Amino acid sequence: MSVPVEDGTGFGLDGRDAARFADILARYPTRRSALMPTLWLIQDRDGHISDAAVSWTAAQLELSEAKVREVVSFYAMYRDRPQARHVLQVCHNISCHIMGAQPLMIHLEGKLGIRRGEATPDGEFALEGVECLGACGMGPCLQLGRHLYEHLTPEKADALVDGLRRGDPPRPDTDRDLEE
Ligand code: FES
After folding, report:
1. Strand, helix or coil at 119?
2. CA 175, CA 118: separation in Å to the nearest integer?
3. Which domains does the chain have, with CATH numbers?
4. Whole-angstrom Cα distance, residue 175 to residue 49?
5. Which protein residues are within 6 Å of ligand 1, measured from CB?
6. Residues in the chain with pLDDT values less than 70
7. 149 CA from centroid of ligand 1 (Å)
8. What is the Å distance from ligand 1's center to 28 Cα?
């Protein structure tokens, strides 16, 4: 299937990313069904989904821009603006709350020197509280991009932050690759 690299929206994919997009399209019966993995692909490359990327995605997948924006804004894992390099999203819904999400969040605030909703001055980390991540029996949970860390303790959270700073984070418990 041919993949236009740039279609006048000011956005495009090329090289390996264009090939990945073609692979995604080949897996779905209709182009519009490929919305979520296409958004993952874009965010994986750019760190967020820009307005131009929304226009490009809508044109490529034969969707309205409003539909694409709706999905980007609904799911916590998608970002519509540049953020910190590592966005730590701690689930604060009821199951994770019971299993210690609140003390975990407080610990991370202390570790990073920021409050939830803020980013570190060096742009390395942002900390967010988010709704259910769909792993309620494995709380408290933290999402980092497509990676999910489960049964978190302050020690495991420290290991994650320290590993990210070194460029050698611990393996996630679940890798949510929506391209699969
Ligand atoms: S309540 Fe935290 S993953 Fe569902």
Report:
1. strand
2. 25
3. 15-74 (1.10.10), 86-175 (3.40.30.10)
4. 20
5. 91, 93-96, 132-136, 139, 141
6. 1-9, 177-180
7. 12
8. 29
